[in-house]
Design brief:
With 182 residues, this protein is mainly α. It has 6 helices and no strands. α2 runs parallel beside α4. 38% of the residues are buried.
Length: 182
């Protein structure tokens, strides 16, 4: 992605850290939590790789095509999983956005998006609206609410819902930043 170097590296660090925490969440004792964490780790690491500044590495078009295939397959998996859980609809939108950006980068004349025109403005705008709304919604969910009895006991780092929400929030912010450069 093109943009200021320090901002791009901060996005790389944020997405890589989020992906790493999602890998830790895969050690959860709950199967659905592990599946969700795996999808989110793929998103985090994929976003980190996409955000590496173009001045450092310029992947060939075939790399972007591979990204499109990987995230297209992840979108199909999320579409199938969304039949049973509404949360997978968000994964569907996220993986679609990643595939969309990869196709845009593969189609861009220089192999990198970021100078405008590397995607359909309507699709990009709709994705920006979705992720901006998601960031606001998930950010509001992080605000502590006073509870009378407390919550259930947490067994480990992978089962902390507030950290999972914070990871989703950071990936949403990263997605907004990446879509702004398309």
């Amino acid at each position: 992605m093109h943009g200021p170097g320090s901002a791009a590296w901060l996005l790389v660090a944020l997405c890589a850290a989020t992906g790493a925490y999602c890998l830790l969440r895969m050690r959860s004792g709950f199967e659905e939590q592990r599946r969700t964490a795996g999808s989110e780790a793929l998103m985090g690491f994929g976003m980190a790789l996409m955000a590496i500044p173009a001045t450092v590495i310029t992947p060939p078009r075939t790399a972007w095509a591979l990204y499109a295939v990987v995230f297209g397959a992840a979108a199909l998996r999320a579409l199938w999983a969304s039949r049973s859980s509404g949360h997978h609809v968000h994964h569907l939108v996220g993986t679609f956005a990643m595939a969309y950006m990869a196709v845009g980068m593969a189609a861009a004349p220089s192999g990198h998006a970021g100078h405008g025109g590397a995607g359909a403005p309507l699709v990009t705008g709709l994705l920006l609206l979705y992720f901006a709304g998601y960031v606001l919604w998930s950010g509001a969910r992080l605000v502590p609410v006073a509870t009378a009895g407390g919550g259930p006991p947490v067994s480990g780092w992978g089962d902390r819902p507030e950290l999972a929400r914070a990871c989703r929030l950071s990936m949403g912010i990263g997605m907004v930043a990446m879509l702004l450069t398309v």
